[in-house]
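Running this now, will post back.
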Amino acid sequence: MVYTIAHTETHTETGIFVEVVIVPDAAAGGELIAEAMADLLRRKPDALLGVATGSTPLPIYEALAAKVRAAEVDPSRARICQLDEYVGLPAGHPESYRSVVLREVVDPLGLTEESFMGPDGSAEDVAAACTAYDRALGEAGGVDLQLLGIGTDGHIGFNEPCSSLASRTRIKTLTERTRTDNARFFDSLDEVPHHVITQGIGTILEARHLVLLATGEAKADAVALAVEGPLSALVPASALQLHPHATVVVDEAAASRLKLADYFRATFAAKPDWQGI
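Update: finished.
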């Protein structure tokens, strides 16, 4: 089956403004989103792409790199920006998010480090670094497409539960739950930083298109609350309901708690193949 992401202004029957696409598995989700990014670059070669880290978006980056190798898209003028960064890791640390993005996105796409922007997590004045990065995103013309993941507690970026829905790029203290989730990337939990710089929810909502990918049953409750639940600071990802162009891509396992799963499947299946973003 050929999947495309096509923006729907509103789901009038349900009042839900978030577009939800249910795919068979993570690979299909990665291909779908990679094609959306490739289509954006065909229309706007110098687009600013906001990327996320972690294991969930890896199929996206692999599929997009395959399209580059096949000469289906030319990303040479693309720009890449970070969603967040650990505070206190030394420059060049392999698990700093800058290093991860360079390794998983920038290098495979054949881009240079000059195309990449992110916050300085090792700055002496972290608060000033947050303000500077928030300002830089605006001066760059804004993010055209921002990739997002979702935590098991509903966080996006590192905006933990009870984060302000109007928040800007700032330093945040990680919950023990999030530190434990991220410990798999380090030798031990003790090595996971306690603080991060993250784009705020208000900053994230300024991107022109938000695309969230969630896979696996562990994310099912968070996805259902974000998409079908009330707008709430307890579920930061529910802020996507405020955005005029937000797409949530989930596999069958992550969709398993959606009450309107059949509706979402039928709505997406009815869209013409030619509809793009």
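The helical segments are 26-43, 58-69, 97-106, 126-139, 176-182, 201-204, 220-228, 261-269. More later if anyone needs it.
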